Amino acid sequence: TPLLSVTASARGLSRYLPILVRVYRKYTNELEPDEQIPPGRLKMIEPALERIQFEVRYMNSIIELLLANSTRPEGKAYDIQVFDMGEVVRQTVAHFPFENAGQRALVSVDIRSPYSLAANEDLCRMVLINLVKNGLRAIMRANKGALAITVKDTPGGGCLIVRDTGCGIPRSQLPHIFTRFYSYPAADGTGIGLAFCKATLGYWGAKITCRSEEHLYTEFTIQFQHARKPEMYMQ
Prior knowledge:
The chain contains six helices and seven strands. By secondary structure, the protein is an alpha+beta fold. The chain has two domains: about 5-70; about 80-235, Histidine kinase-like ATPase, C-terminal domain (Heat Shock Protein 90, 2-Layer Sandwich). The longest helix is centred in the N-terminal third of the chain and has 30 residues, at about 40-70. It is globular and about 65 Å long. About 25% of the residues are buried.
């Protein structure tokens, strides 16, 4: 079930929290009552702290996705704002919970032309977070590749492209990737992310498509319509 992802993240957190507690107790037991932990010793527990922060951020993103996906977007009135898609991409990447600086270096952003979109900004961020997360997993599985995010304006409207050169998706699996609770590989992910993306984008008249070649690349393209007045989205 989707909650298995939360359970897995909780287990990851539980692996690091006891280590941090043991190290903290060890160092504090060696200190005098008024003595502080030396900076050198604090540096030794920084990796555990960073990993705990990553696990918490990841759990938070999964819970948010589960809550947003608990009701289908159709027929629901969302708060609509007009915003710059390129700026949303920059901010989302800047705050994404990368595991380390090396993983962050794999992601590039190319804002080719500005594009204003009338939609729900928070949900757009969640769509992008899901696509970036999937791309980084593909790179990790293949032990190679990079991820590129492109924003550009087209005659039909704004276009957002997320392309990774990781493991790719087998042709036989492509027709199923937007199906709720379908995940490939089966043990990887909750199976709700891409279904959520498609349903949410469809509410704004946007379309998401995927091209992929196994062992080479996967490319998601989101084609937005020209910006409409916010009240046109409300029911």
